[in-house]
Amino acid sequence: MEYIATFYSHFGAVRFKKICEETGITAKAMPVPRLLSSSCGTCVRFQAEPETLPSPTEETEQIVRVNGGAFEVLWRAADS
């Protein structure tokens, strides 16, 4: 399945991408799609099975599942 994580800072996106890659998850940093809000404008798009989703870091704003052309919010930080 395909997911997108957004972040409060560019550093958070880079760090999350590295965590994904260290656990064998293919990940790509890219601009946030217009339909998603982000504080820093950078997101990480990644492929994973639901049971292998990386845990959100303190810099993660939200994690959404890409469902065709729509986004399903799976996790959102409490203060978002």
In short:
The protein is an alpha+beta fold. Helix content is 16%, strand content 40%.
What general form does the structure show?
A: globular
- What Rg, in angstroms, do the CA atoms define? 11 Å
Q: What is the number of helices?
A: 1
Unreliable stretches covering 5 or more consecutive residues: none
Question: What amount of the residues lies in strands?
Answer: 35-45%
The CA-CA distance between the termini, in Å, is 24 Å
| Protein structure class | alpha+beta
Mean of residue pLDDT values: 94
In total, how many beta strands? 5
How are strands sequenced across the largest beta sheet? 2-3-1-4-5
Q: Secondary-structure element sequence?
A: EHEEEE
Q: Biggest β-sheet: count, sense, barrel?
A: 5 strands, antiparallel
* Helix proportion range: 10-25%
Description:
- With 80 residues, the protein is of the alpha+beta class.
- It has a domain at 1-51.
- The protein contains 1 helix and 5 strands.
- The chain has one helix at residues 10-22; strands at 2-7, 27-31, 42-47, 60-67, 70-76.
- The protein has a 5-stranded antiparallel beta sheet with strand order 2-3-1-4-5, with helices on one face.
- Strand 4 and strand 5 (70-76) form a beta hairpin.
- It is globular and about 25 Å long.
- The protein starts with a strand and ends with a strand.
